[in-house]
Amino acid sequence: MRKLPLLMTMAIGMAFTGNAQQDLAKNNIDPSLLLKEAPATLLGQQQSTAFRSTKTAEDWKRLRRAGIVLTSVGIASVAGGITLIAVGDHQNGKGYWTTYDDTPGDDKIVMGVLGIAGGITALGGGITMWAIGNNRLRKYTNRMSFDVGGRSARLAYRF
Fold first, then answer.
1. Helices (H) and strands (E) in the chain, counts
2. d(CA 117, CA 99)
């Protein structure tokens, strides 16, 4: 009985996918246009350099902060998923060799697997955002330092 909504969702998804592929097949591109060189403004090369130059240190701090939060949420989701799987397996009582189709812990096991999958996805995105934000933020820190001591002076340049 639980398989019916899943099968209906899959059928609807396949119908939409089939229609999308038919729509793409109707579009014809002239082969002579493929051989011509596109202007740089169409490819967005000039806009991307202008966009990069407008980023400030605060933007990279925000990216790093969002990466830290997303990584933390991912860790919590993985931990919660592992806990749900353990509780669901304990509620089933017979372990993996149960012969019943519907046991009380099955829903928790499914939610645990989804929590782990979402947590791993959040970890991947969060770590990436954290690393990029931290790397770009280093470019805005003081690169040159000048320290004066009692008998010496030191000039340091970090690159």
1. 6, 2
2. 27
